Amino acid sequence: MKGDLSMSDFTEQLKVIVGEQYVLTEQEDLLTYGQDWSKLYQADPLIVVRPASTEEVAAVVKLCAQNSIAVVPSGGRTGLSGGAVATNKELVLSLERINQISHFNAVDRTVTCGAGVITEQLQNFATEQNLYYPVDFASSGSSQIGGNIATNAGGIKVLRYGLTRDWVTGLTVVTATGEIMRLNHGLIKNATGYDLRHLFIGSEGTLGIITEAIMRLTTPPKEPSVMLLAVSELANVSNILEYFQSKIDLMAFEFFSQAALDKVLEHRQLKAPFEAASEYYVLIEFETVSEATTDEALMAFEYAAENGWLDDGLISQSNQQAEELWQYREGISESISHYPPYKNDIAVTPSKVGEFLTAVDDFVKSHYPEFETIWFGHIGDGNLHLNILKPAAMALEQFKQTCAEANPDIFKILASFNGSISAEHGVGLLKRDYLNFSRSESEIRLMRSIKQSLDPKNLLNPGKLI
Fold first, then answer.
1. In CATH, what number does 224-333 get?
2. What is the pLDDT of residues 271-295, one digit of tens each?
3. What topology is assigned to 7-97 in CATH?
4. Which InterPro entries match (predicted)?
5. In which region does residue 180 sit, left (phi positive, over 0), alpha (psi from -120 to 50) or beta (all else)?
């Protein structure tokens, strides 16, 4: 503890704010709430607090500010960059109890969500209203809206629907001093200076704690169709993307390697989609607006086959078959999580994906032949996931150090393509020291000044992002 307040007095004051049962001190709870899916850092939080309202969050933050206690906001802890890890006796502020959905407005097509609302919960609510929340990813059953906003999560349908940022019309945020700010109030147009809402989106909890959001919904798509294509040459993936985009509106264009598919088949005990293996696979989803759309997609498939761009292909005949095909892509992260993987979530412009992936893959294979690499990603928006798997015989710390040593060389290649070191998983602890590969000195200096202005004591998620 810092200051004059004892740990026991601090704990008692927290219990008064949120209730005794919502202040957790057991070691098992500390380790659970102090860690995220990255599994690359040792959790060491001071205490875990689970408030039930924005007002309770504000009271907890005020108490922490008075006693110089750092705060790590915690959602579904599905992050992969160490952004929600408490490693240095911070208070973990779990937002999972702020999980109400309220104030649905059918005219505005908006709904208010607590930060602890599970992504899938919002998706299901939208469906019940005959509407649609399109931000989707493999962790939608456990990730939370607050965390999605804090990292500006993307997912599998960015190509059609954009990022989380595009669906947030209002935010409630608690600042580092415990002040409550309500931003934009669901407005579509608001030309009154700086839009602070967007400052907090993607800030990873370093500028303020998001407790509530007004989320926009949309019209559901027609029944989707899914194609799974087997591709032997990486260059042909770009050819397929370009041609299909010229013929139909795509909802998703996903990519994964044979090595990634092998992990999913083993983990989920699935049957291989094709008799013969290929180096790469492309999964395409499009809205079945009419028979003409399907005809265009099939003609595009035939054209790609005639030009030798693909080896084989499947198209779904029902929603169930579409979901079954998606399993091959969505099961990848789950199937490799136990290794654990060292993840690089990176992005270049879609036109450069093939050239960039080849350059990085050649580098890893030549310098680290003992490592198994798993590639997959949202190639339609230029987002690739490079996963390096820890060999069973290698200690975790040695594995982390070896991967970290490779990062500068990988990021130099990325910088030559004007790419981003983090496309959708945030920076967290994992990529904090490499921010200069994607941001200029001027940008980083400005980011530091914003952090200093909003959190001068550096109490909100310290050590993350910058």
1. 3.30.70.2190
2. 999 999 999 999 999 998 888 999 9
3. 3.30.43
4. FAD-bd_oxidored_4_C, FAD-bd_PCMH, FAD-bd_PCMH-like_sf, FAD-bd_PCMH_sub1, FAD-bd_PCMH_sub2, FAD-linked_Oxase-like_C, FAD-oxidored/transferase_4, Oxid_FAD_bind_N
5. beta
